[in-house]
């Protein structure tokens, strides 16, 4: 058990996609890039010199929810690690999302020192928030007071079987457990009322670049957990002889029975285990089993 736990702890996620710099350079990035989807048309994202900037200081409608202001890409993953580098000259919300279903369901990790999306009430001291967004149902999974440091900040959010870990610049600040984990979805950036023209001739910039998405592979067999038919035990071949979607090495029914129709001589192991396991009088040791095997050998010798 300790060996298994150690292996799981050191298992490295497998990278699925990454973008270091963005293109093309235009004012409506998502509209002109089929790989990305923008959730709020009035708050577009734009690219300049390879960096993706948010443009969300337009005054959000009162009925807007946290479902707005994101830009997402990639395939759908459930057990995932998202890394991104962000900067924020503004004091409002900016962060990353994952497990995004393309509508209104996702995990949101963001930092804000002022305005924040509904239903948040705002903050003045600087905090990192981890939310679970499912339509208008928004749950705060955790938060931590932390001021935005000068310059760029590395965001990281790991989601693994409902266990969430949020980091800034390599330091884990928020951990949480979601008893009803969200389904697989895409990942990307998030901003709320952050960036662009702040009025009075003052311009504040916020955005990000260098985003990467990796999928968890807890048993280190090269098959990501989302599609691994036995995610806790290494089985790179994904063998599943009875076709029930459970890998043979994890399938108790497959290992513990012998239907007699496989044609595999090794399948007798199932019957041997059943005999040994049913030995009611052998509890203290293997002597009863040895006597039984000895009697079988003597019987076979006499028959000859």
Provide a brief overview of the structure.
The protein is mainly beta and 304 residues long. The protein has helices spanning 2-10, 252-256, 268-277, 287-303; strands spanning 14-19, 36-38, 45-48, 51-54, 70-77, 80-88, 93-100, 105-112, 127-134, 137-145, 153-160, 163-168, 171-177, 185-192, 196-199, 202-204, 206-215.
Task: Describe, in plain words, how this protein is organized in 3D.
- The chain folds into two domains: 2-215, Exo-inulinase, domain 1 (Jelly Rolls, Sandwich); 257-303, no CATH class.
- The longest helix has 17 residues, at 287-303.
- The strands form three sheets. Strands 1, 3, 4, 6, 11, 12, 13 and 17 form an eight-stranded antiparallel sheet that branches. Strands 2-5-14-7-8-9-10 form a seven-stranded antiparallel sheet, with no helix packed on it. The chain has a two-stranded antiparallel ribbon with strand order 15-16.
- The chain has helices at residues 2-10, 252-256, 268-277, 287-303, and strands spanning 14-19, 36-38, 45-48, 51-54, 70-77, 80-88, 93-100, 105-112, 127-134, 137-145, 153-160, 163-168, 171-177, 185-192, 196-199, 202-204, 206-215.
- A hairpin with a 2-residue loop joins strand 12 and strand 13.
- It starts with a helix and ends with a helix.
- Helices cover 13% and strands 37% of the residues.
- The chain is mainly beta and 304 residues long.
How many β strands by DSSP? 17
Can you give the helix content as a percent range? Answer: 10-25%
State the major sheet: 8 strands, antiparallel
Roughly what is the average pLDDT, rounded to an integer? 79
């Amino acid at each position: 058990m300790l060996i298994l736990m150690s292996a799981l702890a050191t298992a490295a996620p497998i990278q699925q996609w990454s973008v270091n710099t963005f293109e093309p350079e235009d004012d409506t990035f998502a509209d002109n890039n089929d790989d990305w989807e923008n959730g709020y048309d009035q708050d577009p994202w734009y690219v300049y010199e390879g960096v993706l900037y948010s443009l969300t200081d337009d005054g959000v409608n009162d009925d807007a929810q946290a479902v707005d202001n994101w830009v997402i890409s990639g395939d759908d993953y459930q057990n995932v690690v998202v890394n991104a580098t962000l900067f924020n000259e503004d004091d409002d919300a900016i962060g990353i999302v994952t497990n995004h279903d393309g509508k209104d369901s996702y995990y949101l990790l963001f930092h804000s020192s002022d305005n924040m999306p509904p239903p948040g009430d705002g903050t003045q001291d600087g905090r990192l928030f981890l939310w679970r967004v499912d339509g208008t149902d928004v749950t705060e999974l955790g938060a931590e007071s932390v001021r935005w440091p000068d310059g760029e900040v590395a965001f990281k959010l790991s989601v693994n079987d409902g266990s969430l870990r949020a980091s800034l610049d390599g330091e884990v600040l928020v951990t949480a457990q979601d008893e009803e984990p969200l389904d697989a979805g895409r990942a990307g950036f998030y901003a709320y009322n952050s960036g662009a023209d702040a009025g009075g001739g003052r311009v504040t910039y916020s955005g990000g670049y260098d985003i990467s998405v990796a999928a968890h592979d807890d048993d280190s067999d090269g098959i990501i957990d989302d599609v691994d038919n036995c995610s806790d035990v290494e089985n790179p071949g994904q063998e599943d002889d009875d076709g029930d979607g459970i890998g043979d090495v994890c399938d108790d029914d497959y290992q513990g029975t012998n239907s007699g129709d496989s044609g595999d001589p090794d399948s007798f192991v199932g019957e041997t285990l059943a005999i040994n396991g049913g030995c009611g009088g052998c509890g203290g040791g293997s002597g009863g089993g040895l006597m039984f095997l000895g009697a079988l050998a003597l019987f076979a010798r006499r028959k000859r």
